[in-house]
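Submission sheet (multi-component)
Chains listed below:
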Amino acid sequence: MTAAPTLQPHLGLKTPPPLPRGGLRVMALGGLGEIGRNMAVLEFDGQLMVIDCGVLFPEAEQPGVDLILPDFGVIEHRLHEITAVVLTHGHEDHIGAIPYLLRLRKDIPLVGSRFTLALVKAKLREHRIDPVLVEVAAGDDHLAGPFHCEFISVNHSIPDALAVAVHTPAGTLVHTGDFKMDQLPLDGVLTDLGAFARLGVEGIDLLLSDSTNAEVPGFVTSERNIGPVLDSVFERAGQRLIVSSFASHVHRIQQVLDCAVKHKRKVALVGRSMVRNMGVAQDLGLLRVAPGLMVKLDEATAMPPEQVVLISTGSQGEPLSALGRMARGDHHQVTIEPGDTIILASSLVPGNETAVYKVINGLARLGATVIHKETAMVHVSGHAPAGELRTLINVAKPRYLMPVHGEWRHLRAHAALAEQTGMSADRILLAEDGVVVDLVDGKASIVGSVPIGNVYVDGLNVGDVGEESLQARRILGDEGFVALTVVIEPSTRTIVRPVHLSTRGFSDDPGAFNEVLGLVEKELKRAMEDEQVDAHRLSQVIRRTVGKWVSDTYRRRPMIIPTVLEV
Amino acid sequence: MTAAPTLQPHLGLKTPPPLPRGGLRVMALGGLGEIGRNMAVLEFDGQLMVIDCGVLFPEAEQPGVDLILPDFGVIEHRLHEITAVVLTHGHEDHIGAIPYLLRLRKDIPLVGSRFTLALVKAKLREHRIDPVLVEVAAGDDHLAGPFHCEFISVNHSIPDALAVAVHTPAGTLVHTGDFKMDQLPLDGVLTDLGAFARLGVEGIDLLLSDSTNAEVPGFVTSERNIGPVLDSVFERAGQRLIVSSFASHVHRIQQVLDCAVKHKRKVALVGRSMVRNMGVAQDLGLLRVAPGLMVKLDEATAMPPEQVVLISTGSQGEPLSALGRMARGDHHQVTIEPGDTIILASSLVPGNETAVYKVINGLARLGATVIHKETAMVHVSGHAPAGELRTLINVAKPRYLMPVHGEWRHLRAHAALAEQTGMSADRILLAEDGVVVDLVDGKASIVGSVPIGNVYVDGLNVGDVGEESLQARRILGDEGFVALTVVIEPSTRTIVRPVHLSTRGFSDDPGAFNEVLGLVEKELKRAMEDEQVDAHRLSQVIRRTVGKWVSDTYRRRPMIIPTVLEV
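Outcome: structure written.
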């Protein structure tokens, strides 16, 4: 619990004025007010630099949508001014929208660490895009137009993550990317507090910092602590063992491999992204694989179950994933047996709870023991909780703080933490997507906002599904539709054919609407007594008649689709 | 973490044989394999007794559905054999389906405690049903045909909850209802371990016990511990204060009232069920309300915000609730101001996470501080966690255990706990809805199963929405539809009117299907060259042509609805 921040929400802001000469402008096209599609745009002297370009996964209110992109509309006419896209790490919510940005201009330089760029490259290959890549490492400098970037190592749930300090004549901005402060990281790569402290002494004008876990008290548990828990599960598992985790969580997978070696089990990777990413990680020396440890899935299924561990995707309950199929008993190679053990060594992303529990229940029904983060310490978060966020602020001593990467609850909690450290409320900038922050003469402030929409990817197309289609999907998905078609002869004003009815998703009773057809015909005939009547008017008659009847009879509101055809 | 239970799931069971003379049969029509619609049916000597009759709330995969009922199909032809419905407590998942059961036979006696029956009565009044009520209290006996019931007080998140021991010539069955073992309950009513111990000594043949929190380690935190947390929030809140909770959680509300008195705030109740239930609780002396404490909402909104606390429904993120409206800024009486404090003193029911976080984010965006169970100890569960479930088994020493009230993950976890106490696996009956357990000659076993479906309430109707409609809703909701209507003259095999197209939920681009119309017409004409062609065949042509085109062009699969009208 924290004190109520005194900051006001930025509702009803106006279009921002032009950026004053010598000023630095910051605007998020995504990631503020949501967890995902992170993308910040910096502007100085007519040039732009982008930090991250990720996707957001849709909620139930965005049915049928595959992905949500940052809204590129604001920069679409300024693509030639983009000096670089700096990528802090290789998670989808930071790199997933890159293919869609490069469709607009394919030679934008992508700047990132070795592992990040390897994942980006693999992704772009699937989109048949050959990008311009600039590899950097912690401690490196990179000049992107007027943006002098300096990279700082941070610790996160994927290797090779970076924060970036951007020095401009207007001042220094530091963006943490996603980070936490695991003090015993598996690869020894710490969040470089020394670098943040040095930058703090030099002067950080504006700190953009990860808010994801701002509501969570305390400090992270080390990733390393998961090892012994996995070990004890391996120790007791007498049969098949399946571990599911994120396909990019190299250190988690490493600990599973280490357990497998110790307990003399071979390992098979299941799922396309798991195979691909672990291949990349192994090639770059980030994943240590003992010789002869890995087997293919068909070899694994032919081995005695107690001699193998499967590492699978599907930890978020995806119904089409390998684990999802196993839970329903319809995986073509793996059949769950009573006594099998499944570990979900993963987070439970908000919104996925029902899907994840469905998988757990399916596995439990088949007789498996399922171990997950609610029942054992098989997951730690990749994001800094409250104690570490306060620590960063105390170390970096920014003049201004802009909480990023979070829903409003996280942004506001982060602001409250900053106030606790002594920052005054007017130095904490609570912004949402599209809100424009200018740093001018050492002073950062909100100067306006531009409208930011949701850009939906559905199948092959981007942007053609919008709020109108989603609203229709919501109605159709909840209530179904009833379509009534009538063919009339306009000159004689007669009905040529009885009303044709077509309905889906309303009722399993095929005769549900029989009763109303006569009524519709009667109302149509009455309406056609008027010589001025037209198809539009007759459509209204159908809609009104059916709408009232179905509401009175069923208390439901299906979509009503009248069609009047004139022959 | 627990050892893998050796119990097998009961898949592919057959129809059970007739109940042997002198045997007791137990079958759940709901509540096993799901959290909700709890309903157990007992049978002895041709007579039935029902324990609880609740509703289940739908998931995203059951779009548009209002409620899910237990499947009464199995007992529909045996309604006259029901001697009583025993209600353990007044939560919706235990009493919500009563109106629908009484529609089938209205004079089934309802047996329950004073508060439970008061809530049932209020509910039935809305359905215009005047029930037969039999009030009982802990310690009471009640004879329902051959079922000799004895009631035991249990502690839960609603007052006046009961467990029931059912003595029959076949043996004794004990059903816990929902319970926990708060050792400092606000009303002093403990779960009566003495009674369970006595019954254990006398001999419990079969224990049906609440599994909801079987995955949660340890023991409950006392409800009483929430008081000081609320107090500290009241202490610091300088403006408006809103507390949201379940409308039946009398003890939670009592603690809010006590804080209000201490901090000199008046109280207004918001939400129909909150007003109704607290009225009932006050009438029965379960809620102590200081004189002059309560004000109406319009009085409250006219008072200075720091002198009032609103107690509201909407803690599960219901968009139409008072709190949901406040979060969107469209409540007609209450406007959230920066610095307001909202407490969600409630659980987060799985499946509701997205909705609840949307409300929290909406409030946070408007400048409010939102305190919820993830950030402060403002909620404790009403269900016994692992430590208490083990305790009950050790005290009651049942010969057989049947875990109830839970999804598979909970049932299996409960079974594992029982094994830890020393029960052998063959005395733990893991069943799901419809599985039939017979207690014959002191031995309980699974003897078969009957099919149990989901009975959906949608608007005024029960049962007409089934899997076919839901499947259509899921497709329509994800992809929308495209309907193509063509009018032909069958004798001449000519198209009388160009193909008419109607589409919703597919794309915001009105011309999305323009390209395919010519193709459809071409294919239709080609098909009509065949003299044998009929409307069905032409429909297939439309479906195939459009289906292929839309899949190739968009990688989407909208519902395609061809209509061929002959004039």
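Remark: The domain at 467-566 of chain A is CATH 3.10.20.580 (Ubiquitin-like (UB roll)).
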